[in-house]
């Protein structure tokens, strides 16, 4: 396993991190979830990412139990706050009330006294940003949170938060957690340049595009049974943006590149995200231990410039069909 600093902070994390969004507490049984966590630990992964909202708070509980007995100082445990975790009007968002209550609830579920990184899961347009930043800073000063990050924030939102932190003497944001893959490169235009300048690292989720970049989805064929595209717990809605026959054909054309390098297609996709110097870690999930063992082999892989160009040439401009998700053609920084 290779390790990188989280942004410009002194915190080192495994460049392949384990995330449990659509698995723990929902897609797989607890025994299988524990086996996946053990596989991650055995592979050298020390960084584990979750969120209070995953599986209706159950994902944090499962992860906490799976990590019980491990040396806490040797782990980096990340979680998030924003989405609803209860029926009340204050059981959501980034108000001081919800942040404080959610942080304490997450610590209980995870079975730990502190989290290494606490992330704002989305931007809250209904709460003053100063209130949010002060609440996060108070958690840092209390020792319950070591570092603060965000997830899926726009460049201008990150910039506003940095300005408030500098003006008010708060701890600065050290990370952003965006979706990023060969097929989803939105952050390259504005977010990455800002974050490179400000010392903020990317913790990228879905580096294999919900499984599309493994090559298991074939053009002109129905999705294989038991895959993300047939899941009724949120996965199918997310992946359908990529299930276009033209796009799937281009993905299949990546296979010779992976074969030449001795990599699986998933390993190639994960390694591709890690070539971006602003990426601190690629988050991978798993429903089976062997998936972890396969994905972790992307750690330390160096893709030469000619390989990166071949990938660009094969994929060409990628246009998402859903108008609400359309982005400009892909381009590598």
Automatic annotation (TrEMBL):
Show the GO cellular component annotation of the record.
cytosol
Asked if the record carries the keyword NADP, the reply is yes
All residue ranges annotated as the NADP-dependent oxidoreductase domain in the record: 15-314
One GO MF term:
oxidoreductase activity
Q: Name one GO biological process term.
A: monoatomic ion transmembrane transport
Gene3D superfamilies in the cross-refs: NADP-dependent oxidoreductase domain (3.20.20.100)
Asked whether the UniProt record includes NAD among its keywords, one would answer no
Name of a matching Pfam family? Aldo_ket_red
- Source organism's superkingdom? Bacteria
Give the signal sequence positions: none
Q: Which SUPFAM superfamilies match?
A: NAD(P)-linked oxidoreductase
InterPro entries per the record?
K_chnl_volt-dep_bsu_KCNAB-rel, NAD(P)_OxRdtase_dom_sf, NADP_OxRdtase_dom
Q: Which UniProt keywords apply?
A: Ion channel, Ion transport, NADP, Oxidoreductase, Transport
- Family assignment from sequence similarity: Belongs to the shaker potassium channel beta subunit family.
Protein name according to UniProt:
Voltage-dependent potassium channel beta subunit
Native species: Actinomadura hallensis
